[in-house]
Structure formats: C-alpha cells, structure tokens
Amino acid sequence: MAELSRRFARWPVRLCNDATSACAAELTFGAGASYRDFAYFYVGTFIGGGIVLNGSLFPGRSGNAGALGSMPIMRREPNGDASLQQLIRTASIYRLERRLIAAGRRGTDIWLSPDDWSNFAEPLDVWISEAAEALAQAITSLLAVIDFEAIVIDGAFPADVRGRLVAQTRAQHARIDEQGLTDAVVVEGSIGRDARAIGGAALPLLAAFAPDHDVLFKD
User: Fold this and answer.
1) H or E, element range at 201
2) Which tens digits make up the pLDDT trace of 46-76?
3) Cα–Cα nearest to 130, from 77, 67, 83, 178
C-alpha cells in the first residue's frame, strides 16, 4: 500500500474488502450511525458483511472480520432434504439469477433493471423466502457470539425488495429458539447498491475521525 501511495497518489492508500467498505458507508452515512454495535449484511452477487463494535468499524486482525457469507446454515433442498451450506450459497443474488434462467427469463434482467424487479414474480418470491430463512439462522449464530444491538441488511436490489427481505427475515428469526440470547432489532440499511463504493470513499474520514483509529487501520 505504501508503494501504491508513493507511485500513484499523493495520499495514503487504504485496503479494505468490499463488504466491509459497504459497512463503513452504513456506519458513516446511514442508519448504522444509530447503533453502537451492529452486524451488517450486504446482499450482492455474493453476500458479505461487516462488524461495528463500540461505534467503530472492526475489520479484524486480517481485514476479514465479518465474512458472514461463509457462515454455515442449514439449507433445505427441493427434494426436502437438508444440507449444511455456507450462507453465500443461499442468500446471494446469483441464486436469483439462476432461478430466473430456470424460469426461461434472462438473468441479466437483474442488472438491466436494477430499480424494478416487480415482474420477476415467483422466482423472486422463492428467493426472498429462502434468503430470509438463511439470514435468520445466521443472525442467531451471530447473537450467540456478540450481543449486537442491531442487524442491518442492505444490498444491490430495489428498496421494496429490501423491505420484503427484511420483513421476512424478522418473521423467520422470530420462530427460532433463542433461549439464553439477547435479541437484536433487524433493520433495513439505507445506502443501497452503491454502498461499497461510498464506503471506500469514507475510509479516509474514518481514518481521521473514527473513535478507535488503531482498531481500523493497524500497521
């Protein structure tokens, strides 16, 4: 990073994965600013996430904290069987793309009409249901590790789809046995598909003004 900064820029270069950057955008400019501790899901082509602790973005010792797409969940197969899978294999947009193709639609319609998925019909309904069930499981696992105040869900989809996904995730989460856990509110993010880019731009602000600079930008 120091070499990149020396060769191509006048300013320090920061390295951050895309989902953590999206979390930075939510913390800096979005609804996340209302919560001291929250876990963040960004549903893109592949789902990822981020962690905020004590008001600061927490990338972890390797920069990979909040790799929520790798969390194991139980996924129900079409034949009724259940299998242990990573969250990324259920709650990612590429799964919706595959469903559209299987229904005789163009998978590229997801990206060609990014603000209107109203004509995706049954493939979208099924995808939201499956993603919500998987997210609910992941949230329960997160709360068994850290008693987050909130769980924030955002992604590269229209606002109405985000609302439906969050509502169904809340409903699925309410059905899970959480004995011994402190519950968290599940809320919509507020930045949307541009969160990753906006978060990358926010990193210099966090570097200068984050409550715990040493946690975010360790040498």
Assistant:
1) helix 195-209
2) 999 999 999 989 988 888 889 999 999 998 8
3) 77
